[in-house]
Write a structure and sequence with these properties.
Blueprint (H helix, E strand, L loop, with lengths): L16 H15 L4 E7 L5 H10 L4 E7 L11 H7 L46 H20 L1 E7 L6 H11 L7 E8 L9 H8 L5 E6 L4 H11 L5 H11 L3 H13 L9 H10 L3 H13 L2 E3 H8 L3 H13 L3 E4 L3 E4 L2 H9 L3 H16 L7 H11 L3 H17 L3 H15 L13 H14 L3 H13 L6 H15 L6 H15 L6 H16 L3 H18 L2 H17 L3 H17 L3 H17 L3 H17 L6 H17 L2 H7 L10 H17 L2 H11 L7 H17 L3 H19 L5 H22 L3 H24 L9 H15 L7 H10 L5 H17 L3 H18 L2 H14 L18 H11 L4 H8 L3 H15 L4 H10 L5
Parallel strand pairs: 1-4, 1-5, 2-3, 3-4
Antiparallel strand pairs: 6-8, 7-8
Length: about 1000
């Protein structure tokens, strides 16, 4: 047998100390409780796998999990690297969702797409996308498993060849990396940088990931000339000097290329070396025996990895000849032996070179051999997808069509809607190319289009979902009424997730109803009835809703459509809520939750939970709302759907309800995002809800940063604008910048008009904050004796207050009348309007205090502060003292710094003692004594040097004090700081 050169893995690592040190530092940091990820980029063959292997080998007490992505067509398994990495673990029984990932576990039963119930997004401002519930559960299960493992031991998760990752793997990776926080986990992903062409699907994911704080990128560059020479010398001790130099130069610093060139030089007596890598690899293959060449060519058709029994059958050789050929391939380092009788090419470049050298006829014949083999093993996970690939490559289109349809169903059951859609698109492309007699008999084109519409929607592609649905509608010829109605129902579901389709949605849903109006009870008829009930409720045609919902329940129970029953019960609950019949609504919501839970319709169950809690929230029963949302949140977490559409809505309401009730610790916990980025809609909405807390607690710098950042996310969801438009105004008021406050309020009101019409009820709260801003501007103008500026502020404030009143009159509440929250903010707007020309009307401020008494603890305390000021202006000092003390008690308990300071300042000016055991406060605690001395001298016109001389401190120390003063006041210049301090009564 000829000589065989050593592999790079058989020698010490050369010239990679810097990169290895960075990886080891990241792993050490993960071990200390700071999770992270490293994206390791480099050209093919540069040594990424060897570097990661060195890290794993030196990781010590670390659980190392490794998975590899394979090129398209090599496998039918979505999430392959995660399945490979986690398949060695035994403690997965308590996470049933992992059955979708691990081949050793049975897939969940197949369910008809879209039968869980209609989407009903209209009661939440803004549209909500469809989601694949199974995928969300799987993602949550993987994250939970890695978190549990990291509590016991440091974990290193390696995902190799990310450039070949399927869409579902990319989605799962994005989900995990955005949630890296305190787990003892390091994720290392390798990919070929030279493969990422402009339209490569990995490029947008990388752009998203590198913005995450926990993610680092490491570029592995080729060896320089000296290191390349060292590497070649280490590979072969007996090559002549001129050959070593030639190999090092031609390798261009690529470790794999250097290995192969060295192998050729070692085995072929250093004859003239080929110049191209493919020629080098093929020259190695051509030096093998004919039998070994045949086996390696057969293996290249299957992909990077192939099982022993599959390769043997397709190769068609005797056992002795086959084993001899395999031994030769392993001996020459072309194939390596892995676990479970799997052979893999040592490097993907070897496989690519061998496959590319096949003759066209040879390639077709070998693909046909694999297709024939796979057709006998369709019980294996992923076999249908592999069969679809090999059948297509061998021009067996009927078999490719059938296998593509089967692969789509399997991918959907595995929680991989993107892969399911890919196989459906293949099937639809093949449909007209396959003779009618050879097409599957259990489906037709309309069914495939309807399925494609469903999986496109759940894969996050709503526009394509609508397009597929419309195409299915055009292919309805010869369909039964029920089948045609299912197509129309699916189109209606897709249309409901996008703005601007209300008329078409109505027409399509009505057409579906006409098709089954006179038919017997069936699951389809029950779903159409439930869909009609939902549509009519959205259109506020309440008189007709109950009849359709009751019929849907009756048909659903008779025909066995529990999803439709649960959906219709939820609609009846909403109807009862609208009519103010809360006992009836509560019963129907509870029945909907129970029915949905019985059949595993988790999304429908969470929707019922959401609206159940919303009923209490809107009616002002905040304690009951908190109870419901706690139970709902627990259920979402239990089912792995915390971050699903309705899981997120529940989480947002948990933040708001507990913030209003004064349980700020719970609100802070609920507002914690799953990751640290605000780039997605979900994270941006949570961050927006969290600004209530940061502003009220006085974390003004962080609030400013977040609110400014979130302004760029207003387009994602109107709720972001509704929340931060108000909190942004409040923040500006606390920073003594009322002009900025009214600017932010005007921006938000304009946004709500554009998206929600002229009478968006959110304008009541936002507008009240704006009126407060104009009142502060008017007060500032009065202090400066600027009558013109005061008149403009008064006029603008009254105009905005008038808009608030008109909105309260003309806006359309979710239920029959404006709720207690809307009425309370209307009362505050009226009270703020009275401040435009003076201290304010005590009676109007008392009405505002009473309005928030139903449960909004902080807002009521805020109004008590303004009520006290109005009372002092009316010379009712004793009453003012009581209001200030109550406001101070709440502000102190909540640690609401700005409010506490404002109350203390008001008490100081009025010489009111807030606490019986304390003397009247001599000063506000905003500044330290030294900062107050510095500010006073600066206000008198002193320079930094003069201030330093007077206070016996250095000029640099004066500058430091001034920087702190300006930060506290939100000023950018010393003169601005002095002006703000005077305006806020901090200087006398």
């Amino acid at each position: 047998m000829p000589l065989v050169a050593r592999l790079g893995s058989g020698i010490p690592l050369v010239a990679r100390d810097r990169e290895l040190d960075r990886l080891r530092a990241a792993l050490a940091q993960a071990g200390e409780g700071t999770a992270g990820a490293v994206l390791l980029a480099g050209d093919a063959g540069v040594g990424k796998t060897r570097l990661v292997g060195e890290l794993a080998a030196s990781a010590g007490d670390t659980l190392v999990l490794t998975g590899r992505c394979l090129d398209a067509g090599e496998t039918g398994l979505p999430y392959l690297p995660f399945a490979e990495a986690l398949s060695t673990l035994g403690n997965t029984a308590n996470r049933p969702a992992l059955a979708m990932l691990l081949p050793k576990l049975a897939l969940p039963a197949e369910r008809e797409p879209g039968t869980e119930g209609m989407i009903a997004p209209s009661l939440i401002p803004g549209r909500r996308p469809e989601q694949d519930v199974a995928q969300l559960q799987l993602f949550d299960a993987v994250l939970g498993l890695l978190g549990d493992l990291s509590e016991r031991q440091r974990v290193l998760l390696v995902v190799e060849d990310l450039h070949w990752a399927d869409a579902s793997t990319r989605y799962l990776l994005s989900f995990l990396l955005s949630r890296l926080r305190s787990q003892r986990l390091l994720v290392v992903c390798t990919y070929r940088a030279d493969d990422l062409h402009r339209s490569h699907p990995l490029r947008p994911l990388l752009s998203e990931l590198v913005r995450l704080p926990a993610v680092d990128r490491l570029d592995l560059t080729p060896f320089n000339a000296a290191d390349a020479r060292r590497f070649v010398e280490a590979l072969s001790d007996d090559l002549p000097e001129d050959v070593v130099r030639q190999v090092a130069e031609r390798s261009e610093g690529n470790a794999f290329f250097a290995e192969e060139l060295t192998a050729v030089a070692t085995c072929d007596d250093a004859r003239s070396l080929p110049s191209a890598l493919a020629d080098v690899l093929l020259s190695r293959v051509e030096s093998l025996s004919p039998e070994a060449q045949h086996v390696v060519r057969v293996a290249s058709v299957r992909g990077r990895r192939v099982r022993h029994y599959r390769l043997r059958e397709v190769a068609g050789m005797t056992d002795l000849a086959f084993d001899t050929a395999l031994r030769e391939l392993v001996q020459h380092h072309l194939l390596v032996v892995e676990d479970d009788e799997v052979y893999a090419f040592r490097h993907a470049l070897v496989r690519e070179a061998v496959y590319g050298d096949l003759l066209p006829g040879e390639r077709v014949r070998l693909h046909a051999g694999y297709a024939h083999h796979l057709a006998q093993h369709l019980d294996e996970r992923g076999a249908a997808a592999a069969l679809a690939h090999h059948a297509f490559q061998s021009h067996d289109l009927p078999r490719a069509l059938t296998a593509s349809i089967t692969a789509s169903r399997e991918a959907e059951r595995a929680g991989a809607p993107a892969e399911s859609l890919r196989y459906l698109e293949k099937a639809l492309n093949l449909w007209t190319a396959v003779p009618e007699a050879e097409r599957p008999s259990d489906v037709d084109e309309a069914v495939l289009l309807r399925r494609a519409s469903w999986v496109a929607g759940t894969a996050g592609q709503p526009e394509r979902a609508v397009a597929f649905g419309r195409s299915a509608k055009k292919a309805l010829d010869g369909q039964s009424p029920e089948d045609a109605a299912e197509v129309l129902l699916r189109l209606a579901q897709a249309l409901s997730t996008l703005d601007g389709n209300d008329r078409e949605h109505h027409e399509v849903m009505t057409s579906a109803w006409e098709l089954v109006r006179e038919r017997e009870a069936s699951p389809t008829r029950a779903r159409v009835l439930a869909g009609m009930a939902s549509l009519l409720r959205q259109q506020r045609k309440y008189a007709e809703v109950g009849d359709f919902a009751e019929k849907a329940i009756a048909d659903g129970r008779k025909a066995g459509a529990p999803g439709a029953v649960a959906d219709a019960l939820g609609t009846l609950g909403l109807l009862g809520d609208y009519a103010g019949r809360h006992d009836e609504a509560r019963t129907n919501f509870e029945r909907a939750i129970e029915s949905a839970r019985e059949v595993g319709a988790v999304n429908t169950e969470l929707r019922a939970w959401y609206y159940f809690g919303l009923m209490y929230y809107d009616s002002g029963e905040l304690a009951e709302a908190a109870r419901v949302y706690r139970e709902a949140g627990d259920r979402a977490q239990e089912t792995g759907l915390t971050w699903s559409t309705y899981g997120v809505e529940i989480r947002i309401l948990q933040v708001l309800v507990h913030y209003y009730l004064g349980d700020w610790s719970y609100a802070e916990w609920a507002s914690e995002p799953p990751g640290t980025s605000v780039s997605s809609t979900v994270l941006a909405r949570l961050a927006a809800a969290g600004t209530h807390l940061t502003v009220s607690r006085g974390d003004l710098a962080e609030s400013e940063r977040m609110i400014t950042k979130l302004r760029k996310d207003w387009h994602r969801d109107i709720q972001i604008a509704l929340i931060t438009g108000g909190t942004g105004g409040e923040l500006a008021l606390w920073r003594g910048r009322p002009e900025l406050a009214v600017e932010r309020v005007a921006d938000a009101v304009e946004w709500t008009k554009k998206l929600g019409g002229p009478w968006s009820l959110a304008d009541i709260r936002i507008g009240a904050i704006g009126v407060a801003g104009y009142a502060d501007i008017a007060a500032k103008a009065r202090r400066k004796r600027d009558a013109e500026a005061e008149a403009k502020a008064v006029e603008a404030g009254r105009e905005l207050a008038g808009h608030v009143r008109l909105t309260a009159e003309n806006g359309v509440p979710r239920t029959t009348s404006l709720g207690p929250e809307g009425r309370a903010w209307l009362a505050r707007s009226n009270a703020e309007e009275s401040r435009l020309t003076g201290p304010g009307d005590p009676e109007l401020w008392k009405a505002a205090v009473d309005g928030f008494a139903y449960g909004l603890v902080y807002e009521q305390a805020w109004c008590r502060w303004r009520y006290a000021e109005a009372l002092l202006g009316a010379d009712r000092r004793d009453e003012a003292a009581e209001e200030l003390r109550q406001a101070d008690e709440v502000a102190t308990r909540l640690k609401a710094g700005p409010l506490a300071e404002a109350v203390a300042s008001c008490a100081k000016r009025a010489r009111i003692t807030l606490r019986a055991e304390e003397p009247a406060r001599a000063q506000v605690d905003l500044f330290t004594p030294r900062e107050r001395d510095v500010l006073g001298l600066v206000a008198s016109g002193r320079t930094n040097r003069e201030v330093g001389e007077e206070l016996y401190i250095s000029e640099k120390t004066v500058s430091v004090h001034l920087s702190r003063i300006m930060a506290k006041l939100g000023a950018s210049r010393r003169a601005e700081a002095v002006a703000i301090a005077y305006d806020r009564g901090l200087l006398e």
